Amino acid sequence: MEMNLKGKNVVVTGAARGIGREICAGFAGVDAAVIGVDFRDMADTEGYLRGTQPKCRFEKFSVDLADPASIERGCAAILAKFSTVDVLVNDGALWGGLKITPLDKIPAEEWDRVININVRGTYLMIKGLLPGLRKSQGSVINMASSAALRGSPGCLHYATSKGAIIGMTRSLASELGAEGIRVNAIAPGLVDNEASRQFGGEKFPKMLEGTVAAQCLHTPLVEKEIVGTVLYLASALAAPITGVLLTVDKGLIKY
Ligand SMILES: NC(=O)c1ccc[n+]([C@@H]2O[C@H](COP(=O)([O-])OP(=O)(O)OC[C@H]3O[C@@H](n4cnc5c(N)ncnc54)[C@H](O)[C@@H]3O)[C@@H](O)[C@H]2O)c1
Questions:
Q1: Does the annotation mark 158 as catalytic?
Q2: Tens digits of per-residue pLDDT, 137-154?
């Protein structure tokens, strides 16, 4: 059996850095056409991909996931260029840049921004690219988080947004299954990366230590370790898999 991802059109949001950049590299590595979406500059991602895959196809689309009009424009531009979308990975979210904040100190504007980017932005990307997904009977992979399953203090808006992603994934799998479109989610544990360090600040080393101790596998989770599960869910190997949530967390949550 083959993954069958060669030449597929794969849209990855959150492509400018972090896990999203590694996901782009993973798809480039199996000769997919990678379509990066972010509001940050994606030149570093392009350089990173070309460093290992000089001939890979990487196209960038600047989209602000907080802005419905920007998403609509971006999706229209992607469809105008590619017509079909085989895979949509909704990785882009507000995580890096957030700081540990007790629930009674979260400003209403920050609550709205997190929910709008992480939940509405994911929904609108799926809605905007649906014509392309329909053409290919494609697959959607949404990024949830162990924060929603384990219950993480200091980020109520973020954990709530990731809980919504799980509900959205299951409902969409039911709704789009009739058209042959698969929708799955991944819940990584705490990843040892720049975004998590920004969130934890000086408490990050203790956060990481506590998480690693709670995992079955006692090593920190790193960005590259998320990629294989994304490729699997996107691939022909996962053809009968839809509506699932896969924890990718070294055994943090036995789900
Ligand atoms: N790092 C972790 O521990 C962890 C754990 C579980 C789940 N996740 C999820 O994995 C995904 C990637 O996380 P990460 O650690 O790489 O974080 P990150 O902050 O490094 O990456 C997030 C990406 O989303 C983009 N983004 C943010 N707001 C945007 C907007 N308004 N418009 C367009 N793009 C926007 C950023 O530019 C960035 O490229 C997120 O969905 C996150 O919630 C992360």
A1: yes
A2: 999 999 999 999 999 999
Say if CB 18 and CB 195 are below 8 A apart: yes
The model's pLDDT over 59-118, given as tens digits with 9 standing for 90+, comes to 999 999 999 999 999 999 999 999 999 999 999 999 999 999 999 999 999 999 999 999
Whether the CB-CB separation of 249 and 152 falls below 8 Å is answered with no
Identify the H or E element spanning 200: helix 194-200
The DSSP secondary-structure symbol of 180 reads T
93 lines ligand 1 (CB under 6 A): yes
CB 166 within 8 A of CB 114: no
- Judge if the beta carbon of residue 40 lies within 6 A of ligand 1: yes
Catalytic annotation, pick one of 48, 123, 158, 232: 158
CA of residue 178 to ligand 1 center, whole Å: 30
Q: For 54-200, where are the E strands, in sequence order? A: 58-62, 87-90, 139-143, 182-188
- The topology under which CATH files domain 9-188+223-248 is Rossmann fold (3.40.50)
Residue-wise pLDDT for 152-201, tens only, equals 999 999 999 999 999 999 999 999 999 999 999 999 999 999 999 999 99
